[in-house]
Amino acid sequence: MSNPAEKPEVVQLPAEPVSAPSASSRRAAAQRVREARDKLTSTSGTRPAFDAEMLRQYAQTRLSASYVVMLLVVATGVLFGLWMQPIPAALWTAGMLCIHGAMVRSCRRFLTEPASPAATRAWRTRFVVLDLLYGLCWMAILIHPVLDMVTETLMMFLMLLVIAVSSMLAANLPIAALAATAPVAVAMALSFAMTGSLDNYILAALAIAAEGYFVLLAHRLHSSTFATLEARAEKDALIGELEQAKAISDEARHRAESANVAKSRFLAQMSHELRTPLNAILGFSEVMKSEIFGAHAVPVYKEYSADIHNSGVHLLNLINEILDLSRIEAGRYELNEEAVSLVGIVADCHHLMKLRASSRGITIHEVFEQAMPRLWADERAIRQVVLNLLSNSIKFTPQGGEIWLKAGWTASGGQYLSVKDTGSGIPEDEIPVVLASFGQGSNSIKSAEQGAGLGLPIAKNLIDLHGGTFTLKSKLRIGTEVIVTFPPERVMSALAPLSDDSPPLQPEGSAVPDEKRRPRHKPIMSAGTGS
Hints:
By secondary structure, the protein is α+β, with helices and mostly antiparallel strands. Among the domains are: 208 residues, no CATH class; 153 residues, Heat Shock Protein 90 (2-Layer Sandwich), CATH 3.30.565. 61% of the residues lie in helices and 9% in strands. The chain is built from 14 helices and eight strands. The strands form two sheets. Strands 2-4-5-7-6 form a five-stranded mixed sheet, covered by helices on one side. Strands 1-3-8 form a three-stranded antiparallel sheet. β6 and β7 form a beta hairpin. It starts with 22 loop residues before the first helix and ends in a 39-residue tail after the last strand.
């Protein structure tokens, strides 16, 4: 007996995370929904705003061509009055003029009234009815039995003229154009076809073909006008979005400027408020640490005083770094430029940090090029940059590591400074983080000696103020190297001494020369004349 089939194991796949749509996609979806709703509520399949604009252009076209249509009606009435009795022709002319007057009056009223969806639909129906009456009146005169003696060619010409004028005038409202031209074309085609001759059959086919051509032409004109309206609407929407974005950006800029001013005022005030008690803490803690007024009864108090003094020094340095960074970011940091020696500054900083490096078993090597000219720079800023870089290298280099200090020429004629260590390194994706204000890498967070994350940003900004470059290269478990370069314009090359003596200011022999003894034909000074 066979075993029953085992049930297949159903493994539920992990659901893929659904990413949140972006702001642009949400705006595009909202716009598509709005356009679909507008098309569903419109009578012509377009936006209600476009319907009103189309009717407005239709009314303006009708008003601009009102005198042309009036002249055509009067001329046709006079011409037909020669072939038929004057009274029927006059009645037809009066009826046409009444319909035309009602059309003109309706167009003027439409242009003066405010647009609304309900009013637009009502005016659209009214215009279609008036155009239908206009076409029926033309049909009545063209198929009048009295006009049988008129040649078919003349009737065909008049029909084409009426259809062409009506199609062009009502192109912005295709249904009205069809209502004005279809009765005329269909009636003339039937009139030609009822005669039974081949020529009239051809004329009937031409009448239907002409009607189709002018209907297609009116549709093309309507499509081009609609495309123009869409382009204008998109342009207006884009201009509106740009103005809104500009207003938002201006407001954000004003808020940022206000926040920057408030931050500067706060830092300036807090600097004074913090330094005043901090100086007292540093002074009294140093007195207690040094046991100036006598030894402590409990030796531990001396260690506590040293800890208080060291913490106060650290807090004071942090305040100074924050103030320097705020001045640099606000553009109010002024360089006190003078002729300085880059090698001398680096050597002094090495001497200051040598004891700290020796306590950690770190060896610092110096590689300096000799006889380098001075730089035109801010000595305090350069010294701060070197101390920050060297302090970071000592902090993140393990015991027994090595640090190289280099200073020399660049390929373009400038000078450079390099600080390279054998520390733990920085991941490549964290380099922008450590160069940002208050940014710290993963190794810095794990380290026992955490800082505020201001050393590298301050150093980079100070070098940028000098017009130089700040390059940070690092590899994990290999080390980090920071290269700082100064442009050739800041290198003060030595000037060569003058080879020729300057000409004397006065002639030798007397302080005031005798003009009577001086020859008239020789110049006063002969420098550069070759004599």
